[in-house]
Amino acid sequence: MTVQQLEYLVALDTHRQFVLAAEKCHVTQPTLSMQLQKLEEELGVLLFDRNTKGVRPTAVGAKVVQQARQVLREVQQLRDVVQLEKNELVGELRLGIIPTLAPYLVPLFLVELVQRYPQLQVQVEELQSAQIMQRLKDNQLDVGLLVTPLDDRQLHEVPVLEEPFLGYISQDHSLYGRTTISPQDMGEPGLWLLQQGHCFRHQVLNICAPAPAHTNRPFTYESGSIETLKELVRHNHGYTLVPELSVLQELDNPMVKRFSAPEPVREVSLVVHQGFVRLPLLHTLRDSILRKVPERLWAGKAGQKIRWR
């Protein structure tokens, strides 16, 4: 049994296609198939069911894959320990970030990060919170950038930002004339929401008291994009809530309304597996972000944290 065989095993479980798994491992499909067959022969069990509908791990195969992921994580930790001793920021950084953060935060720090550390290979993927959490546990991501707290003992959180929720209100809505708004105002009709699965949606509904009322619209629309919600408000009746990073360039827009104190905020953290050892990389990433956002958004400022779980 070799580390390479375990890497092939995990790749096939991840992608469920021999051709794609081989491509990700930078080998030919026959090579990957042969090595997995050797592993099965050594263990004396069938690890994958292979049929016309795809590739799936057997019951025992799923247990072997789970253990293989843990072994590969520990192998990577050995390599990381060596790099730490050399005081080098090199290698791969697989970063997962939620869609309501990515378009506003990634452009601020990514280019500078890779310019300062050219030996660091950064891969960024937009994923929903539950996906990031699972991929951190499966060793498919190194770092997640998402909303916390998560209350998960397998994961370690490093708070970075406390980002206020702001109202984004149409000129002909009854809330437009307010200087500030409150959670009690969120029962007003006309609230646009993100679609199911986004932690931001859950937080908005946790702010609202009472729950959003039904409207007389002849249609319903739940978006997957903060920018789409803003456009709906600009061109239609109604209102929505947005994170402050999404309106940094238009804070003087009268459509943007702050909440009265204490402002509801979402805590944004860098999240890693508890076994993560590249702490200097984590601190570097945190510092890169903080240099690019207003200090009032840094974690530790006054605000009422809104949970999403």
UniProtKB/TrEMBL annotation:
InterPro entries: LysR_HTH_N, LysR_subst-bd, WH-like_DNA-bd_sf, WH_DNA-bd_sf. GO terms for cellular component: protein-DNA complex. It comes from Hymenobacter sediminicola. Residues 65-130 form a coiled coil. This is LysR family transcriptional regulator. One of its GO terms (molecular function) is DNA binding. The keyword Cytoplasm does not apply. Residues 1-58 form the HTH lysR-type domain. PANTHER family: HYDROGEN PEROXIDE-INDUCIBLE GENES ACTIVATOR, TRANSCRIPTIONAL DUAL REGULATOR HCAR-RELATED. The keyword Coiled coil applies. Keywords: Activator, Coiled coil, DNA-binding, Transcription, Transcription regulation. Belongs to the LysR transcriptional regulatory family. It comes from the Bacteria. CDD domains: PBP2_OxyR.
